[in-house]
Amino acid sequence: QVQLVESGGGLVQPGESLRLSCAASGFTFSRYIMSWYRQAPGKERELVAAISSTGSSRNYADRVKGRFTISRDNVKNTVYLQMNSLKPEDTAVYYCYAKRGFQHDEYWGQGTQVTISS
Predict the structure, then answer these.
(1) What is the pLDDT of residues 19-54, one digit of tens each?
(2) Taking a C-beta distance cutoff of 8 angstroms, is the pair 9, 114 a contact?
(3) How far apart (Å, rounded) are the C-alpha atoms in residues 79 and 98?
(4) Dihedral, CA of residue 65, residue 45, residue 81 and residue 58, to nearest 10
(5) What is the pLDDT of residues 57-113, one digit of tens each?
(6) Do the beta carbons of residue 98 and residue 36 sit within 8 Å?
(7) Strand, helix or coil at 103?
């Protein structure tokens, strides 16, 4: 069965860091574009970062560029989101997303809560 299992969320102070992980199984991970999305209560879901299947290309939302880094390990079938200099407005549920390029296949993780509060 297909699974995307997120971990690493939690409660931190402004300016601190967190590293999210998403462990994939049940599909050919190395063929999929991987992304992180987030959604706060009362706000639209937004794309945070994306990484190509090989890891050769990365894109970031303007709000996080320079603070967040997406990476992947195609041996461990895991995608990561390193989040530095966290701000209260980064508070959201963060979701892992897999998409096969030029195919209909797509999968979502269950989400992990990230809260930044003083």
Answers:
(1) 999 999 999 999 999 999 999 999 999 999 999 999
(2) yes
(3) 10
(4) -50
(5) 999 999 999 999 999 999 999 999 999 999 999 999 999 999 998 888 999 999 999
(6) no
(7) coil
| Pick from 108, 100, 102, 81: nearest CA to 29 | 100
Residues with Cβ within 8 Å of residue 76, at least 6 apart in sequence: 23
Burial per residue of 60-79, b for 16 or more beta-carbon CB atoms within 10 angstroms, e otherwise: beeebeeebbbebebeebbb
State the pLDDT at residue 79: 98
The pLDDT value given to residue 65? 97
Q: Report the alpha-carbon distance of residue 12 to residue 96 in Å, rounded.
A: 20
